[in-house]
Write a structure and sequence with these properties.
The protein is α/β, with parallel strands linked by helices and about 200 residues long. Helices cover about 25% and strands about 30% of the residues. The protein is globular and about 50 Å long.
C-alpha cells in the first residue's frame, strides 16, 4: 500500500487519479500508524514552504516521515513535497525543512524577462542510471508550476535539471529518497512512466 500524506497542501486528487490509472493500492492519510506501515510514501503539495512545514508539524507528521525514511521505505516528494525535503527555503526565512537532503530552495530571478512563477511544460536534462527516471530521456517534457527551485548541496543527488533562466535541480534520488519539482501526475505519458517506476520499486 502507498500512503499519500494528507496535510492540506493541494493537488492530491490528481496524484490519486494517476495511481488509480496504474492500478496501485493507495490510501490518503495523515494517520501516523498507516504511514509507518506503508510500503511506499508520497508527499505531494503546492503552496508555501513555511505553511507546509507548519501543517506537517501541527499534524505530527514530521517524526513519522523521518521514521519511514530511516527504515528505508521508498519516499517520493512532489513539487512542494520535494522542496520541504531540503533544509530551508528563501520563501520562508528561519523555517526549518525536513532536512532529509542537504541544500536549499531559492527563487527564480526572472532574468531574461521570464515570468515567475514558471507555469507550463519544460524539458529535462536527465542523468543516466536513475531508478525513478528509468526510460525517461533528456529532452522529455514535463509540467511545472513553481516560483522556487531546489539547489541541492550534493549534486550527486540530482538526477535531472531544467533551465528557466537559471538551471534548477528538478529531480533527486538518494537511496530510498526520490523527488520531483515538476508534477508527474500532470505530465502525460512521461509522468505516468515516472510514477510507475516509483510504484514498482
Amino acid at each position: 500500500m502507498i500512503a499519500i500524506i494528507d496535510y492540506d497542501a493541494g493537488n492530491i486528487r490528481s496524484v490519486e487519479k494517476a495511481l488509480e490509472s496504474l492500478g496501485a493500492e493507495y490510501r490518503l492519510t495523515r494517520d501516523c500508524a498507516e504511514i509507518a506501515g506503508a510500503d511506499k510514501v508520497i508527499l505531494p503539495g503546492v503552496g508555501a514552504f513555511g505553511d507546509a512545514m507548519k501543517r506537517l508539524n501541527e499534524y505530527g507528521l514530521v517524526d513519522v516521515i523521518h521514521r519511514v525514511v530511516d527504515r528505508g521505505t521508498p519516499f517520493l516528494g512532489i513539487c512542494l513535497g520535494l522542496q520541504v525535503m531540503f533544509e530551508r527555503s528563501e520563501e520562508s526565512p528561519g523555517v526549518k525543512g525536513l532536512s532529509l537532503l542537504p541544500g536549499e530552495v531559492v527563487r527564480f530571478s526572472g532574468s531574461d524577462g521570464l515570468k515567475v512563477p514558471q507555469i507550463g511544460w519544460n524539458s529535462l536534462s536527465v542523468k543516466s542510471g536513475s531508478r525513478l527516471l528509468k526510460g525517461v530521456y533528456s529532452g522529455s517534457f514535463v509540467y511545472f508550476v513553481h516560483s522556487y527551485y531546489v539547489n541541492a548541496a550534493d549534486k550527486n543527488d540530482v538526477i535531472a535539471t531544467a533551465t528557466y533562466g537559471e538551471t534548477a535541480d528538478v529531480a533527486v534520488e538518494h537511496g530510498n529518497l526520490f523527488g520531483c519539482q515538476f508534477h508527474p501526475e500532470k505530465s502525460s505519458c512521461i509522468g505516468i512512466k515516472i510514477l510507475n517506476n516509483f510504484v514498482n520499486l
